[in-house]
Design brief:
By secondary structure, the protein is mainly β. It has two helices and eleven strands, in the order H-E-E-E-E-E-E-H-E-E-E-E-E. Strands 1-4-5-7-8-9-10-11 form an eight-stranded antiparallel β-barrel. The protein is globular, with a radius of gyration of 22 Å.
Length: 203
Amino acid sequence: MKYIHVKTTALLLGALFSGMSAAIAAPVAYKIDAAHSFANWSVRHVVAKASGTFNDVTGNILIDADNLANSSVDAKINVLSVNSGLAKRDAHIKEKDYLNVEKFAEMSFVSTKIEAKSATEGVITGKFTMHGVTKEISLPFKVLGFGNDPWGGERSGFEAKTSLKASDYGFGWGVKPNSPVGDDIEITLLIEAVKPAADKPKK
């Protein structure tokens, strides 16, 4: 009986410490892969829609796959990377009347809270800065998955969507009478991140 009692106690302690280890497991660090990440946008143009992307997205993601609420994001978008599919239009978008890239060449987002809705979905809230204006925004997101890539790395994928009013960030084009460009901007973020390789031991 004593042997059974000792064995049972050991099993219970093992389960307890195993649970504690899982609970305090640190989030895993990933670096946003700019070559495979996109901040896509669309906006009304006259009676249709124009769309494009910013294809220079960088930053860091700390992801706790077991508890998304323990995760965080710190990201930047290079405004100079705007791409609407037409070089002449891109040059116009970069001018002072629109993005004014000479003065505001970067957007940034720093998360302040993540609310998990499930193991793969949630809402991320944070401070978004564009055109010199910082506002709190919330983005529903999905975890698209985790896996190994063909080059021996480990990757994670995410998708997030939101909408912004250009006028909230000091842009006046969408509030002018009969403006050909709308005030509402639809955003879709497609983010791929890679886990940095461990430092190789020194010889």
